[in-house]
Design goal:
The chain is an alpha/beta fold. The chain is built from 15 helices and five strands. It folds into two domains: 162 residues, P-loop containing nucleotide triphosphate hydrolases (Rossmann fold, 3-Layer(aba) Sandwich); 126 residues, Zinc Finger, Delta Prime, domain 3 (Up-down Bundle), CATH 1.20.272. β3, α5 and β4 form a beta-alpha-beta unit. The N terminus is likely disordered.
C-alpha cells in the first residue's frame, strides 16, 4: 500500500469549454456541470451594479477558485452577458494568458502558508486605491482560509467602502472561518458536492478520457462529490496500486493462516496508519460489492465494476462465504475505524479486525 504526496486540489475545469468561441479553459456559466442554482445566481450577478463582494464556500477541491475565476473574468470582460465573459475581447485575451493587470490574487505570501498582515496593509489595501488599467473594474481574489481570523478585520473598511470599480472574490472552505462582520458584507455562494455522474463528466473532461469507464466511475464515486480529489487520484499512480493491494489482501484471506495475518498483513496496515481512513473505505466498498453479488447476479450498486468478474470468481471459489459473513466483516472494519478515532491501541484494534475477518472469510 504505497504512499503518495500532496493534497487534494481545486479542480481545473467544471465543464466543457466552448472551443469555437472561447479560448483555452474559458467556460460559459452554462457550461459548468451541475450547480444549477449557483449558475442562475452568477448570471444575475453580472448585471448588478451594486454587487461588490462575493464569498465562495465549499470543501477543498470543490471548485471555488475555478468558479471564482469565471466570475472575475466576466466582471473584467468588455462585453459580458448573463452567461459570463465573451471570451474574445482584449480583456478576455489578457485574462486567459494570465497577464490581466486588473486581476489580483492574494492567497499566501511567497513560501508561506498564510497571508500576512504586512501583505494586506502594504500591498492589498493600498492597491485598491489605484485605478484599473484596461478594464472598468479591478478584481481581487482573496483566500480567507489563509488569513488568521483575528486579522480579517483589516479588510473590513475596504469591503465596507470599496473604491469605485473594485470587486472582491473571497474563498473559504467554511463560512464559519470568516468573521461575521466580513460575512455580512459579502454575497455567499455555497458550492455543493457534485453527484457521481456529474463528477464523472468533470473528470472525463479533465484528462480522464483515456481511462476505462469503470475505473473512471470508481474514482468519481470515491471522490465523494469533490472533483478536485478525483483530479488528484487521476494523476496518482499509487492509488490504483493501493486499491489492488486491498483487493488482493481481502481475496487472499481464506488461503492465509493466522500467523501471516497477524505479522505480514498487520505490518502493511501499520505502515499506512496515516491513510487508514482511505484504506478502510476501499475495504468497505469491496465488502459491499461482495455482499451485493451474493444477493444478486446482476446488482446495480456495484462500485468496483472493473472487478466484478474477479469478485464473482472469488465467491464461486469460496462458496461458504455468506451475506451474514460479509455483514460481520464490514462491522469489523467499521469497529476498527471507530477505535482509531477513539485512540484505542492501533495494534490491538487492527489485529482484532484481522482475526474477525479471518473468522468470516474462513479457509485454512
Amino acid at each position: 500500500m504505497g504512499r503518495r504526496p500532496g493534497q487534494d486540489k481545486d479542480h481545473r475545469c467544471l465543464g466543457k469549454s466552448r472551443g469555437d468561441k472561447r479560448q483555452g479553459d474559458i467556460m460559459a456559466f452554462s457550461d459548468i456541470i451541475g450547480q444549477k442554482e449557483l449558475k442562475e445566481r452568477l448570471g444575475k450577478t453580472i448585471g448588478q451594479v451594486s454587487a461588490r463582494s462575493f464569498l465562495f464556500t465549499g470543501p477543498e477541491g470543490i471548485g471555488k477558485h475555478t468558479i471564482g475565476r469565471e466570475l472575475a473574468r466576466a466582471f473584467l470582460c468588455e462585453d459580458p452577458g448573463a452567461d459570463g465573459s465573451c471570451g474574445k475581447c482584449p480583456s478576455c485575451t489578457y485574462f486567459n494568458a494570465g497577464t490581466h493587470p486588473d486581476m489580483k490574487y492574494f492567497e499566501t505570501d511567497e513560501g508561506k502558508k498564510t497571508l500576512s498582515v504586512a501583505t494586506m496593509r502594504e500591498k492589498l489595501i493600498p492597491d485598491t486605491a489605484i485605478a484599473p488599467q484596461i478594464s472598468k473594474k479591478k478584481v481581487y481574489m482573496v483566500n480567507m482560509d489563509n488569513i488568521e481570523i483575528k486579522y480579517q478585520n483589516l479588510l473590513l473598511k475596504v469591503l465596507e467602502e470599496p473604491p469605485a470599480g473594485v470587486v472582491f472574490i473571497l474563498l473559504c472552505t467554511d463560512s464559519a472561518n470568516v468573521l461575521p462582520t466580513i460575512l455580512s458584507r459579502a454575497s455567499e455562494y455555497k458550492i455543493s458536492p457534485y453527484s457521481d455522474d456529474e463528477t464523472f463528466e468533470i473528470l472525463k473532461s479533465n484528462d480522464g478520457e483515456g481511462l476505462p469507464e469503470d475505473k473512471l466511475r470508481f474514482i468519481a464515486t470515491f471522490s465523494a462529490g469533490i472533483p478536485g480529489k478525483g483530479m488528484t487520484l487521476l494523476e496518482d499512480e499509487t492509488f490504483n496500486e493501493e486499491r489492488e493491494e486491498v483487493f488482493s489482501f481481502l481475496t487472499g484471506i481464506p488461503e492465509k493462516g493466522y500467523t501471516d495475518l497477524l505479522y505480514d498483513d498487520y505490518a502493511l496496515f501499520d505502515k499506512e496508519q496515516d491513510k487508514m481512513e482511505e484504506i478502510l473505505l476501499i475495504m468497505m466498498w469491496f465488502l459491499g460489492d461482495m455482499a451485493a453479488l451474493l444477493s444478486s447476479a446482476h446488482p446495480d450498486n456495484i462500485k468496483n465494476r472493473d472487478k466484478t468478474s474477479e469478485i464473482k470468481a472469488f465467491l464461486a471459489k469460496n462458496k461458504g462465504i455468506t451475506l451474514i459473513n460479509m455483514s460481520n466483516a464490514a462491522q469489523a472494519v467499521t469497529d476498527l475505524n471507530r477505535d482509531i478515532r477513539s485512540r484505542v491501541s492501533f495494534e490491538s484494534a487492527c489485529c482484532g479486525m484481522l482475526l474477525k475477518l479471518k473468522k468470516e472469510f474462513g479457509g485454512k
